[in-house]
Amino acid sequence: METRILIVEDEAGLATTLKDRLHKEGYAVSVARDGNAGMDLATREPFDLLILDLMLPGQNGLAICEKVRQLGSNAPILMLTARRQTMDKVIGLQTGADDYLTKPFKMVELLARVNALLRRAGPGKIPAATRYQFGDLQIDTRSTEVTRGGRPVPMSAKEFHLLQYFVEHRGATLSRDELLREVWEYGGLPTTRTVDVHVAWLRQKIEKDPKSPQLILTIVGLGYKFVG
Ligand code: CA
After folding, report:
1. Which among 62, 94, 121 is the end of a domain?
2. Residues 160 and 112 placed together within one structural domain of the fold
3. 197 CA → ligand 1 middle, Å
4. What pLDDT sits at residue 81?
5. Higher pLDDT residue, 124 or 28?
6. How many angstroms does the Cα of residue 61 sit away from the middle of ligand 1?
7. Taking a C-beta distance cutoff of 8 angstroms, is the pair 97, 77 a contact?
């Protein structure tokens, strides 16, 4: 049984990013781009989790949240708010929302909240692992296991997160700054050299010939690119 998520968000870019990312995690995702369409979907179809932007054209996120609760649904609700709407956040939690996230947020943070809410909601709501295969290299993002030719490849958490970021953005040139920002978000004061060192370690583990990498390519002057 698929886990269904409704996103009500009027910012087109964010709505698409959220939809794509959650879809990749294995969720069935519906998107409404204004409050009225969101209200319509939320009250007509069963969802396992709702992600509601607070400020929407038409009915706002709080109105949808209240209505869904009035109808007796106890599906987890995650509210998205802009930074300055602190008061509204509080009201949101009083009207039946389970959690909120302040914009701008990192996708990993949203996924963590979604998973936590679904875990609380009951077993079987979180989709099975996402598996990637590149030649004899296999990566399982849920169990965080990497194997090569069937043999486990031991990795530090940081190496795994770096690899996961590469894989999820394969084909794109990623700057050292982006990798630092996305993978080392809570670290001390890492430098771009940190990225290079970790890439070198990853290559030792996943490349057939680390001196002539086929998976993580160096794009001179720009950064790195994962090709699979
Ligand atoms: Ca909005």
Report:
1. 121
2. no
3. 40
4. 86
5. 28
6. 9
7. yes
**Which residue type sits at 210?**
P
Calculate how far, in angstroms, residue 33's C-alpha sits from the geometric centre of ligand 1.
9
Domain range for 96 is: 4-121
pTM for the structure as a whole: 0.60
| Pairwise pLDDT comparison (87 vs 220), residue with the higher score | 220
> How many domains in the chain?
2
pLDDT for 222 beyond 60: yes
Shared domain for 100 and 147, answered yes or no, is: no
Distance 21 CA to ligand 1 centre (A): 19
The amino acid at 131: R
CB neighbours of residue 24 within 10 Å: 13
221: CA distance to ligand 1 center in Å? 37
Question: CB count, 10 Å around CB of 4?
Answer: 17
Distance 55 CA to ligand 1 centre (A): 4
- CA dist 166 and 183 (Å) reads 10
Q: Are residues 33 and 81 in the same domain?
A: yes
Bridge-partner residues for 50, per DSSP? 6, 77
Q: Give me the count of residues in the chain.
A: 228
Q: What is the CATH number of the domain that holds 33?
A: 3.40.50.2300
Ligand 1 centroid–CA 95 distance in Å is 18
Do residue 113 and residue 177 come from a single domain?
Answer: no
- Cis ω on the peptide bond leading into residue 104 (within 30° of 0)? yes
Give me ligand 1 centre to Cα 67, in Å: 19
Is there a domain that residue 126 lies in? no
Give the pLDDT band of residue 84 (cuts 50, 70, 90).
Answer: low
